[in-house]
Amino acid sequence: MSEQIDEILMDAEERMDKAIAAAREDFATVRTGRANASMFNKVVVDYYGAYTPVAQLASIAIPEARMIIITPYDKSAFNEIEKALRDSDLGINPTSDGNIIRVSLPQLSEERRKEFIKVAKNKAEDARISVRNVRRSAKDQLDKLQKDGHVGEDDVRRGEKHLDEITHKHVEHIDEILKHKEAELLEV
């Protein structure tokens, strides 16, 4: 295969790896029965006009399996953090004593677990779509190389075969992450 095809394939694999990393981050925000600091990664607070993640404004401690203690670094942001937590889609109800915010995670009901599994499946499908979009873009680049006469048809076919293998590997990886998340959600 030519150097140009290798570059296209390496770029595609790198972009697919990024899609998987983004999927992992998304999966971490889906709440399970256990306390996990990463579930607050997508919760942002209006802090002096800038939307800032909670993790940058407060320390997050997990003293028990279903208890989270959030201690704001700046006490002036206390109410905004509490409001952002309450308004988030995590389904939590924070309580505070003026110094710290306590989040007690209730046991997930069967219905709520199924809802979170649906959310996880949607996030997995978004990741698969992202990987397939990278594949389509790389395939278009390969076709353009052939059309412009830079490489032969056989090289492009080998490149497409390799691209399909890379795509399949990444989609399987996403499915594996989803399976793990589903098992985590069903764990009581």
From TrEMBL:
UniProt KW RNA-binding keyword: no
- Entries under Gene3D superfamilies matching the protein: 3.30.1360.40, Ribosome-recycling factor (1.10.132.20)
Under the heading CDD domains, the entry gives: RRF
User: What terms describe the molecular function in GO for this protein?
Assistant: ribosomal large subunit binding
Q: Does the keyword field hold Protein biosynthesis?
A: yes
The cellular location(s) given in this protein's UniProt record come to: Cytoplasm
One GO cellular component from the entry? cytoplasm
The record, for SUPFAM superfamilies, names: Ribosome recycling factor, RRF
Entry-linked Pfam families: RRF
Q: Which UniProt keywords apply?
A: Cytoplasm, Protein biosynthesis
Q: What InterPro entries does the entry give?
A: Ribosome_recyc_fac (IPR002661), Ribosome_recyc_fac_dom (IPR023584), RRF_sf (IPR036191)
GO biological process: what's one of them? translation
**Ribosome recycling factor domain segment(s):** 24-186
- Annotated family: Belongs to the RRF family.
The record ties this protein, via PANTHER family, to: MITOCHONDRIAL RIBOSOME RECYCLING FACTOR PSEUDO 1, RIBOSOME RECYCLING FACTOR
Question: Protein name, please?
Answer: Unannotated protein
Q: Which organism is it from?
A: freshwater metagenome
